[in-house]
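REVIEWER CHECKLIST
Item 1: Sequence provided? yes
Item 2: Single chain? yes
Item 3: Sequence as submitted:
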Amino acid sequence: MRTRHASILTLLALALGASAGRAQVEVDALTEVRTLRLDGEHVLSERKLRALLKTKDRGGAYGLRVALGKIPMVPAPGHHPFSPLVLQQDVVRIRQAYAAAGYLHTRVRYDVTRDDVKNLLDITIRIEEDRPLVLTDVRVLAADSAVALPAPEHQRGSWRRLERSLVRQRGKPLAIDDAREGRERLLAWWRDRGFPVATAWIVPHADSARSVVTLDYRVAPGPFARFGSVNVQGNKTLSAATVRRLTPIDSGDAYSAAALERTRLELRQLEIIRVVNVDVPALAAVDTSDTTRGPAAEALGIHPLPVRVQITEGDGHVIGADLGYVTDGGISAESNWDHFDFSGGGRSLKVSGVAQTGWWAVADNPDERYRLAVALRQPGFLLRPVAGVLSPFVEYRDDSQDRSTQYGVNATLVRQVSQFQSASLNYQIAERQIHEYRAGDLVAGEIDFLTFLTQLAQGARLGNSVKSSIFTLSGIVGTLDRAANPRLGILARPALQVTAPSTWSSTEFWRADISANAFLPLHRRVTLAARGALGRLFPFGKSIPDPGEDPRTKFLQLRDVMFTAGGTGDVRGWENRLLGPKVPEVLFTIEGGDTIPHADSYVPIGGLSRMSFSVELQLPLPGLGPNFGTHLFLDGGRVRTEDHRFDLQQAAHGQQRTFYATGAGVDMRTPVGPIKMGFGYKLNPSLTDLVDPAELLRAANSRQDVEALPRDQSKRWQFYLAIGASY
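Item 4: Structure as written out by the authors:
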């Protein structure tokens, strides 16, 4: 009976309708398709339909692509000979897709026009949809309708929710993929709760005259079973005891297919392991399609089921290096040495170095940064799925904030679920030695640039040693369809920091920050990408200015954790961190015994809160193939301090309002990663965005009206370049 109903369902899914019209045209080995068009509006999106087609056309701007293909590193268009057989198969695939969506009687045909002179074909695929087959009822039943399904008492709520989700298919066109997905969810539910040979199948009842159908899901749970011992095979460097310790399966646990998959994921976190296979050998002898449950299946409920873990190890030592470039930091390099089973137990040791040189940076104030760190990672620390990491480090930086050296140690607990799912708790204790300050602030209530900048240039010290003791809870949550060039998905990175204890930290604050990226495909090669970030700093304790105390001192002590905005990966109309409050970066020269101030660029002040966003439309670049694209964007952001205890007049010249930028650029996929470059245009710049810093400094020294200074409209434009992922 089940076989007969399965055949009916198969016929429903594979219904092909009328035969294709065969165009009588002459073709040879050199014949190509010039254009391939889908006629009319369709229930299925054009992106989905085109994904089914194996017949390919030449694409747009073919002549231009041929010419550009003669340039090194630019691929020339390939030759795609036309095949009548492949076109017939395309028609069948389209019919099958419509049948799977409930449109069983959809007619698909094609028209072919030949250009005899150029030996090219123009093909139009015409689709005529009929009314769909509608689901009038959905039921979930046991294999024997007279017997209730034995859902465990403590799982009844979960089971009822699953049943309700399946019944929601009522009133919709019969979608074979949705029906099969419901069957897989039923199987997963039972096989994750101790029933390893549970089976489920679909019984359709179709009334073709009325174009309606009912679906019955039949479920046979089979015997209940438990896990037995865990046997490890294939290990060479890792000990079997280490693998068993990190396996989230214990003898006596109820059988769970999800636990087997979780074991694969957990063991893949060990960098020395390249391949993991986890199975239950006893299940290989059982026919899971046998709903009668013969002796072999019933025996599963008598003895515990041993688990087999087969692993393949990779190299124990790896040396790697990367070279990149960003507009704000110039040429950057990173290298690392890894030992994947340091002293046994699955521990890994990593020594890494980072050099952001500032060489050839486009920004006037490049961020230079050099860092050396050692990280010892212990899997299964305290809890089986948790890894502990101890990492001492030393870092030298020379940027718009200061020139300093920091050394310290990080202790981290990490729960890594997948590439895009993780949580961590970090504690860092560190000390930063300040060699030179490069920041200042505005005097409350008036614009006194001379006093303000003189204090900055003379190196007014707030203390040359800054200590920090910070707890950070952070995570990554979401999913992307692919890591390198995502087109679908969302990824969020929340983080919460607090300083404690106060005696070990020069500052005291809470800091909340979250950023997110989202991607949505709109067409075959069109993607909508969005990015957003929110942050707020809450000073307390010793970071709050006392009555009569200069608030600038407390403000500057928080500069390492202050929020800024602007730059290649943020708001692209501005240089790195220069959106919002900023002042001229003043340098002094000695001329004839006099100290002469001058400024060629700006330095950010920062703020206690930040908001930024980006909306980007990613489009193909006509004529250059899938490795090239273009993008249009609208970015925006705001940095401000609205805490009256600091009483900082950063709103001067409108620098605390929300700013917007738009622009466009080019994307390229290369062997070294994706490259993005382009120009951003400031839509509503502030006075400091358009006025030369030297002019602003001279006006401040002579107490002229800075609002009357000439604006340089060319400063609205900002070039950006980045290599690497855009999230």
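Item 5: Key structural point noted by reviewer: Residues 84-100 form the longest helix (17 residues).
Item 6: Recommendation: ____
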